[in-house]
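Handout, section B. The chain below has 263 residues.
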Amino acid sequence: MASGFSDNDRRILEAVGAGASALSFIGSSFIVLCYVLFKELRKFSFKLVFFLALSDMFCSFFNIFGDPSKGFLCYAQGYSTHFFCLASFLWTTTIAFTLHRTVVRHKTDVEDLGPIFHLYVWGTSLVMTVVQSIGNNYGQLGTWCWTQTGQTSKARPVFVVHLMTFYAPLWGAILFNGFTYFQVIRMLNNATRMAVGMLDGTSQFDTRADTKALSRWGYYPLILIGSWAFGTINRIHDFIDPKHRIFWLSLLDVGMASLMVLA
């Protein structure tokens, strides 16, 4: 049993984690299936959404295992969830970059950047997963396998490596997306105001509708924050006081992170 959790606590966390991951798996699988079945969706912009959903799908799939304890399944879950969850929010930065390059910088060469995006996302995810696995021990952490930290001489280096290989890229992506979407939305709002006096009522409505639809992307950094804030706080707390883990914080950590794709 993981330190600080009773058997009943662990069963609740496992049920919430598996249930939330299953919902996310269904949601992301639906997006992947739509992309495969409908050829009209196979545009470059939606292709990025497809790879984002694909990463979410595999991340959710391995989280459905719950707590496989130690052994091969534990290592498989630890490596796979780290890789695909990292890839998931890295794909969000490619979407933000594409919108910024198209709307703000008025470039039309984004489709040529596809191979660079793949190298950036999959390459970074692989390197970060390999680096954080060196010298670390995967074991039970609530309802999943993750890098263990505790009150040992290696605890602080392990925590720092984990912080730099997962949470640093995560919050870097959140900041990048937030700054990028702010510029995109500001540009769209300025363009809309300039066009208001030049268009008829129907065209004004269409322009505002398009702007509103694109502006919804600006909420994605907030979704990432809501999904991973509790996990970040939980990791820091567990490092500071590993013998007194907080059940409700772990519950929010498991539930919110697993439900990210549904937002």
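Note. Strands lie at 138-141, 144-147. Compare this with the example in section A.
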